[in-house]
């Protein structure tokens, strides 16, 4: 029996890419904050075009364009983020994350307000009591991801710290002190070298 080839259209491919981005960032505050920290530590000069596009999809997912794997259709599909927007978001997140974990206690890190508009909405009926209200955020720029970062830090930021070796931000698990094995090894090597130097003197 010959199987028919499945033709994936541009819109269908885009839909699948956005669903994949949802899986990458995860559905918990910790997993999303972890993704942002890893993204902020990356070097954009090493990205291929596909990597940059995938990061753009993850940024869209963090700013409200959520397409879970079981979603069949319905919501508006956003266009891909231009490469220069992905790079701008990377620079902004890298700076914000570095400042969050390295600034002295009590020193604020500003979040730009021009990337989001805030509205109040009544979610109950006109004459219904008690009246119920909510807040609607409309993101007007990819830099609105900084607002998502703020919310994630307030929920899951107890694990967000600076690497003891390179000062890069990361989400620590258990007694983790370094952002990765490379920094941990460098720290061990320097301690060994200092020990040896101490013995010689």
Key descriptive features of the protein:
mainly alpha; about 45% helix; 6 helices; about 10% strand; single chain; globular; about 200 residues
**Proportion of β residues?**
5-15%
Number of helices: 6
Percent range of helical residues: 40-55%
Class derived from helix and strand content = mainly alpha
Kindly provide the radius of gyration, computed on alpha-carbon positions and rounded to a whole number of angstroms: 22 Å
Q: How many runs of DSSP E, i.e. beta strands?
A: 4
Strand order of the largest sheet: 1-2
Q: What low-confidence regions span 5 or more consecutive residues with pLDDT below 50?
A: none
N-to-C span:
80 Å
Q: What general outline do the C-alpha atoms trace?
A: globular
**What integer is the average pLDDT?**
88
Order of helices and strands: HHHHEEHEEH
Query: Major sheet: size, sense and barrel closure?
Result: 2 strands, antiparallel
Question: What's this model, at a glance?
Answer:
The protein is mainly α and 201 residues long.
Q: What does this 3D model show about the protein?
A:
This protein has helices at 10-25, 29-41, 49-62, 83-102, 145-156, 181-200, and strands at 116-122, 133-139, 160-162, 169-171. The strands form two sheets. The protein has a two-stranded antiparallel sheet with strand order 1-2. 47% of the residues lie in helices and 10% in strands. It has 201 residues and is mainly alpha-helical. The mean pLDDT is 88. α2 (29-41) packs across α4 and α3 (49-62) crosses α4. 22% of the residues are buried. It contains six helices and four strands, in the order ααααββαββα.
């Amino acid at each position: 029996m010959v199987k028919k080839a499945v033709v994936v259209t541009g819109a269908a491919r885009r839909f699948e890419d956005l669903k994949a981005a949802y899986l990458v960032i995860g559905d918990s505050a910790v997993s999303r904050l972890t993704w942002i920290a890893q993204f902020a530590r990356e070097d954009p000069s090493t990205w291929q075009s596909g990597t940059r596009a995938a990061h753009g999809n993850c940024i869209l997912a963090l700013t409200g364009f959520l397409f879970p794997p079981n979603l069949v259709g319905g919501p508006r599909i956003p266009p891909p983020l231009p490469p220069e927007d992905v790079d701008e978001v990377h620079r902004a997140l890298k700076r914000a994350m570095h400042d969050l974990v390295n600034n002295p206690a009590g020193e604020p890190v500003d979040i730009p307000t021009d990337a989001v508009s805030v509205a109040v909405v009544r979610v109950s009926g006109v004459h219904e009591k008690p009246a119920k209200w909510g807040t609607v955020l409309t993101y007007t720029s990819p830099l609105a991801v900084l607002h998502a970062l703020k919310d994630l830090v307030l929920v899951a930021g107890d694990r967000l710290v600076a690497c003891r070796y390179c000062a890069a931000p990361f989400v620590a698990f258990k007694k983790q002190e370094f952002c990765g094995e490379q920094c941990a090894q460098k720290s061990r090597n320097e301690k060994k070298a200092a020990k040896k130097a101490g013995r010689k003197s």
